[in-house]
Amino acid sequence: MKKLNVSKLITISLLIIILAMGSIIISAKNFKNGESPSKMTQVINDSTGGIDKLLSSPGNYFRDKYTRIQSFLNTYEENKNLKKELYQLSERATNSEGLQAENKSLREALNLENSLVGYKKITANVINRNPSSWDDIIIIDAGNNDGVKLNMIVMANKGVVGRVSQVNNKTSKISLLTGQHGLDNKIPVRIGNSDSPSYGLLSSYDYDKNAFLVSQITSKNAIKNGDLVVTSGLGGDSPQDLPVGKVIEKKNSSESSFEELYVEATGSFYDLRTVTLVDRIDGSHKEEENINE
């Protein structure tokens, strides 16, 4: 039975091939003589055309699917490459911004160091700033081996930002003036010009105002908004004439008859990369040092 079916299939295939060849020969002859194909030739042409279409359909189907899959793969690969390029561009932009900020910080530290004539200066890098104590503490890469002393004034971004609160051999902890303990030791300041100055104490930081509070004003000289506030150096605990900020508001103290001032900080506390520690040349600090090995 299987042999019979194979024989029939071979016979039918041969007939189709013979008919197709005959159709091609007759069509070519008619075309050459400019004659229209006979009805028999048209029937044969239509039959072989239908068979060709039937036989070519699976091939066309799979070819179309292959083309679509290839197109999808090409699109996926292009998207992958584009994402990679976009990430690389973003990374380069981030690195560039970081380098620009670092260069700016270094230039400002250098300018500050050049402007502070007559002071002992130590420039250091911020190596740690924990998000949980962002407004309180920074760690720098300079310590006792570099000459750092307890309570040294710390400057950054053109203004006073903190004080040394702990000294180790190679690192130090800085208490920022915006922190909870940054002004435990109040800083004497001078308000206004040197001809008719007023004096007070930088005593706390008001987060609602985003400003320092200067209390215990010792003079009733005309203080106005915009007056500059600098360290006074009184008491021998800090150098004088270091920029602190400018007056933005005055108020009467509820606890005493002294007038109080809100002072906007000169130095930004947000982006601290490089800091400068400042001390008097005579080194009139207390000999209290907390040195951890």
Automatic annotation (TrEMBL):
Cross-referenced InterPro entries: Cell/Rod_1, Cell/Rod_MreC_2, MreC, MreC_beta-barrel_core
Domain of life: Bacteria
Rod shape-determining protein MreC beta-barrel core domain sequence ranges: 126-278
Keyword Cell membrane listed: no
Keywords: Cell shape
PANTHER family listed in its UniProt record: CELL SHAPE-DETERMINING PROTEIN MREC
Protein name, per record: Cell shape-determining protein MreC
Native species: Floricoccus tropicus
